[in-house]
Amino acid sequence: DHVGTKTLGLCLAAAHVLFFLLQYQDKEEVVLWMNTVGPYHNRQETYKYFSLPFCVGSKKSISHYHETLGEALQGVELEFSGLDIKFKDDVMPGTYCEIDLDKEKRDAFVYAIKNHYWYQMYIDDLPIWGIVGEADENGEDYYLWTYKKLEIGFNGNRIVDVNLTSEGKVKLVPNTKIQMSYSVKWKKSDVKFEDRFDKYLDPSFFQHRVGFDPGWVNFLCTYLCVSYMQDRDLGDEYGWKQVHGDVFRPSSHPLIFSSLIGSGCQIFAVSLIVIIVAMIEDLYTERGSMLSTAIFVYAATSPVNGYFGGSLYARQGGRRWIKQMFIGAFLIPAMVCGTAFFINFIAIYYHASRAIPFGTMVAVCCICFFVILPLNLVGTILGRNLSGQPNFPCRVNAVPRCCVRSFKAVLMFLLRYFIFTSFWAYKIYYVYGFMMLVLVILCIVTVCVTIVCTYFLLNAEDYRWQWTSFLSAASTAIYVYMYSFYYYFFKTKMYGLFQTSFYFGYMAVFSTALGIMCGAIGYMGTSAFVRKIYTNVKID
Ligand SMILES: *[C@@H]1O[C@H](CO)[C@@H](O)[C@H](O)[C@H]1NC(C)=O
């Protein structure tokens, strides 16, 4: 029986499959994203690239859908450069746009050059840096670099290396036109895709260009961790079999637990549907329509919550199912509304325009009681009747196993989980195209990591995997929330009680919802895994 090992292998393989999603076809569109511009000597002070009067290339639209969770989280607003770049398709040097340099624009550039401004761009997640311009020795004439020479290295179907050379120094003279140009040269490269970030980890590169950035540190940790995982054999292979009589023991606090799992499943369903609707409907054109859709979808998916929460509660032998249903149904609405009302009071106090009208509050309460609750009831009844019977592959011992010796195991487990978390959180922040992809990656990674960690836990003969799998997957939220602090203090210029509470309040709601969703996903995946391995075990 190597089912466990095989599943683990599958999970590791799945992680590798993710990397294949980054392949390109010949002539496929490659997007050059413009990120930020700012003084070289103060890395925290950044502005949007187009806050300087640069001009945009002629290509107006991209076929990729680009609003991503990562951008929203990080506040990075990558903007399309307008440059036409296709995979393995060389572009000869040519003008892509013209800057009409009036006095004002010249002053902006001169200010930037005086302060040694540099800018950052991304191609396929690879960061690229360039200098805006140069002053001559006596500091009277200022020059702008106008020609971006891009050399992109590819290995198979993937981009592995990018070099930018700035050329074409043009003196800034008011009331002239400055032509901006670019060229792209594709070169075969031997760099492996897995190693493509290595050049940024080279200490000399670090010193000169990147500076200290948590993203890179995370990346390094991950690298170490993954190699550690692959080298190490998976510990005692048989520990998990010892706990077969306890593995399916109900979790502690089944009421809260099943409510959390139910809510998490619902959040997942909502995210999935909203993203699909957004892709079809182009929701982003209208502000706020996203939120209304989300509320509508949330109400409509209430049966999902009832079904999963209710059936889990029944399987765990819970009797107070009405109470469970109420808690499950109102957990998320109460959290969101509580935060919103709290912020609202502050907003009213400050006479801010973001105060929520009284009518809206009443409407939200009505939706909770007259739509969400009844639909939850339907779901709960269905769930209890259709899958409320405990049918575990192993019998549960009457007496719980004593003396769980797992403190160290749990600690190691959380540590490992954090490292993994930082891995994919890093990936999400610098993320690829679509929200959908983000969600899929999020699910796969969460499930895989939680399974691997649960396996370690069971091998340490600790059977309390239910809460552990939920909490460890949910701890992602802690990471995101901590990141929001970093972001607040280093990347934004917010001030005042209202802005601060608005930001941290909603980030808390977002992180918690994300945590509950990940927790539920992690638990569902792990639960399937545990069932699978104990179905095949022969108990002697
Ligand atoms: C980028 O520059 C490095 C160092 O000069 C060089 O080794 C590498 O081949 C270049 N890559 C491409 C794609 O030109």
TrEMBL record:
One of its GO terms (biological process) is protein localization to membrane. Keywords: Membrane, Signal, Transmembrane, Transmembrane helix. The keyword tRNA processing does not apply. One of its GO terms (cellular component) is membrane. Residues 1-19 form the signal peptide. It comes from the Eukaryota. It is a multi-pass membrane protein. It is found in: Membrane. The chain crosses the membrane at residues 255-280, 292-314, 326-350, 356-378, 409-426, 432-458, 470-490, 502-524. The keyword ATP-binding does not apply. It holds the Pfam family EMP70. Belongs to the nonaspanin (TM9SF) (TC 9.A.2) family. This is Transmembrane 9 superfamily member. It comes from Peromyscus maniculatus bairdii.
